[in-house]
Amino acid sequence: MTDGKRRAVHFGRLAETLCALRLMLSGHTIIARDYRTKVGEIDIIARRGRTLVIVEVKGRDTLFAATLALQPAQRRRIERAAADFIARHPQYEAFDFRFDVMAVARWRWPRHLPGAWMIGD
Prior knowledge:
By secondary structure, the protein is α+β, with helices and mostly antiparallel strands. The protein is built from 3 helices and 5 strands. The chain has a single domain, classed as Trna Endonuclease, Chain: A, domain 1 (3-Layer(aba) Sandwich).
């Protein structure tokens, strides 16, 4: 692994940890991190009340770049992974759920974008 790749992986892990912390501080319970399936992956799955929150973390040089980084194909993979999670965890079937993005830039607190997209957007 190159130094650049190693730094990017380290920054990504740090970004996810910061986002999980921000979610917990705002009253969310973290259910899973790095949930991986054959159809896709989810960075963070959290819950607040009766809402299941599927979170994609995007770390970039600026918050603006991070907010623009999620492409339609990636959203579809996350949606499939969310369906897999709910199928494997039927206790969450009756929950409301939403897809959020958390944008992270170096030396900045994560920006949380609740309801960043709906299924099929």
